[in-house]
């Protein structure tokens, strides 16, 4: 066991070293939140590592362990949205040269007030997502090393804060490349070894109740498809993904990397769901949250186990770092800086970004300890994104003509629709208000944009 722990400790030290060395290159606030000139392979790996986090890996395996493949199929909505984003939206980044964040795009398209509001929503969304990822770190450390879950949350959050605060987005992308390699190899390898121990895929199928292979598995079809749409839209164009889109060598490179990342999601979700079902077949644990780390302990010998342990650690860290960086850049760059009466020195802004990174990490740790539900935290975080910002941001990338009044009217409609649904209909339907709020936002934005277009076409008197 000491050898396994040494491998994981070495991996964490490597990530810390990336942050410390990367920090030497971060001399300006712009260096902290923006990178440029990345090619297809780097963007593909970084995008993929950013969304492969606790919810889409350990959370997916836990859901499959408890109820079957329904959640994994719903998660495929995210892969669909990434492919469509690469096809229809990513080329639009060419119109926003010089922008580095969601707030930058919204401010240029709809005015400074929209940029501030968008930056605040982006911060709240990102902080919640980080909380979900460090919760996964707590589960991993408890199962793999016997540590209290609180200790695991603090260790994981501490490592992420160190290299994200030290090296900014460039350190995050360098860490993403390592984490993607660990996950892309480690998760399929774990599945192969687990299936071998279980007697093969056919044996796992025989041990699994038929209802586990039903996409609905007791859900109302409406609830399933709303979850599918929620997963498709919940993280679409989320702040760290938009940052990557703005960091490509060209719009064509960005679009290609985004499509590849979307296609990668489908086999990855299938692998993690099968890991959860195989863990159930092998009876390695009673709680679905423990499925992935319990499999690592069950199917691997000491020594080799350390590499898969490091891959499990990567599950938690790979999404947390990008969202943590985006949270800090959104709050300082998109909210605090425009609200100042006099511009602050660049070094002051950089210090504030690093401080907000640390404070957000602590807030995420507190969230993980108080709300131990990975998918629940993710759903809460999505409420600050899709129903409020997704439609105006997508419209900006598509080149749709609209103004600040369209932006705020749509955001207000999305917030009202989501809130009303959750208060009045959630208990009856079991469907979260994210999708209804998104539809309200879309309807209001379309109405306002058409009205604006009619005014523009009206000849002057």
Structural features:
461 residues, mainly alpha, Sodium/glucose cotransporter, 2 domains, 20 helices, 79% helix, 0% strand
Describe this structure in words.
- By secondary structure, this protein is mainly alpha-helical.
- It has helices spanning 2-23, 29-33, 40-51, 58-67, 70-89, 102-110, 112-145, 149-198, 201-207, 221-234, 239-245, 251-282, 291-299, 304-339, 346-370, 374-382, 386-398, 404-424, 426-429, 434-457.
- The chain is globular, with a radius of gyration of 22 Å.
- It has two domains: 2-386, Sodium/glucose cotransporter (Up-down Bundle); 401-461.
- The model has no long low-confidence stretch (mean pLDDT 85).
- It contains 20 helices and no strands.
Helix content: over 70%
Query: Spans with pLDDT under 50 lasting ≥5 residues?
Result: none
H/E element order: HHHHHHHHHHHHHHHHHHHH
* CATH A-level architecture of the largest domain: Up-down Bundle
Question: What is the percentage of strand-forming residues?
Answer: under 5%
Total number of helices: 20
Terminus-to-terminus distance: 82 Å
CATH topology type of the largest domain: Sodium/glucose cotransporter
Please name the fourth-level CATH homologous superfamily of the largest domain. Sodium/glucose cotransporter
Tell me the overall shape. globular
The main sheet comes to:
none
Radius of gyration: 22 Å
The structural class is mainly alpha
* Average pLDDT rating: 85
Number of strands: 0
Number of structurally distinct domains: 2
CATH top level assignment of the largest domain: Mainly Alpha
């Amino acid at each position: 066991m000491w050898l396994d722990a040494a491998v994981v400790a070495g991996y964490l030290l490597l990530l810390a070293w990336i942050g410390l060395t990367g920090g030497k290159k971060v001399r300006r606030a712009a260096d902290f939140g923006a990178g440029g000139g990345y090619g297809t392979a780097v963007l593909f790996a970084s995008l993929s590592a950013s969304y492969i986090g606790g919810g889409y890996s350990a959370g997916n395996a836990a859901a499959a362990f408890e109820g079957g493949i329904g959640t994994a199929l719903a998660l495929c909505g995210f892969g669909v949205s990434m492919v469509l984003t690469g096809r229809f939206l990513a080329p639009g980044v060419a119109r926003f040269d010089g922008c580095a964040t969601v707030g930058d795009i919204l401010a240029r398209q709809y005015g400074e007030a929209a940029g501030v509001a968008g930056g605040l929503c982006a911060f709240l969304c990102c902080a919640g997502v980080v909380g979900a990822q460090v919760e996964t770190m707590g589960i991993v450390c408890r199962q793999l090393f016997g540590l209290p879950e609180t200790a695991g949350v603090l260790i994981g959050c501490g490592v992420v804060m160190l290299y994200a605060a030290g090296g900014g987005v460039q350190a995050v992308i360098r860490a993403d490349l390592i984490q993607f390699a660990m996950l892309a190899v480690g998760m399929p390898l774990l599945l192969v070894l687990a299936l071998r121990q279980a007697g093969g895929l056919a044996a796992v199928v025989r041990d699994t109740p038929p209802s586990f292979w039903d996409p609905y598995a007791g859900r109302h079809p409406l609830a399933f498809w709303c979850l599918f749409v929620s997963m498709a839209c919940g993280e679409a164009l989320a702040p760290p993904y938009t940052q990557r889109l703005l960091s490509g060598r060209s719009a064509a490179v960005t679009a290609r990397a985004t499509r590849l990342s979307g296609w990668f999601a489908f086999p990855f979700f299938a692998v993690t769901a099968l890991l959860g079902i195989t863990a159930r077949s092998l009876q390695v644990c009673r709680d679905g949250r423990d499925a992935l780390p319990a499999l690592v302990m069950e199917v691997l010998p000491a020594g080799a186990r350390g590499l898969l342990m490091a891959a499990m650690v990567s599950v938690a860290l790979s999404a947390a770092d990008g969202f943590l960086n985006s949270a800090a850049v959104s709050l300082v760059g998109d909210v605090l800086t425009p609200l100042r009466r006099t511009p602050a020195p660049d070094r002051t802004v950089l210090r504030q970004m690093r401080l907000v990174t640390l404070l957000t990490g602590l807030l995420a740790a507190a969230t993980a300890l108080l709300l131990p539900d990975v998918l629940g935290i993710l759903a809460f975080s999505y409420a600050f994104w899709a129903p409020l910002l997704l439609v105006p941001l997508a419209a900006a990338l598509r080149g749709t003509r609209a103004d600040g009044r369209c932006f705020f009217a749509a955001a207000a409609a999305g917030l009202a629709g989501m809130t009303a649904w959750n208060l009045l209909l959630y208990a009856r339907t079991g469907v979260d208000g994210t999708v209804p709020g998104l539809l309200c936002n879309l309807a209001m934005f379309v109405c306002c944009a058409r009205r604006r277009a009619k005014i523009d076409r009206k000849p002057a008197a």
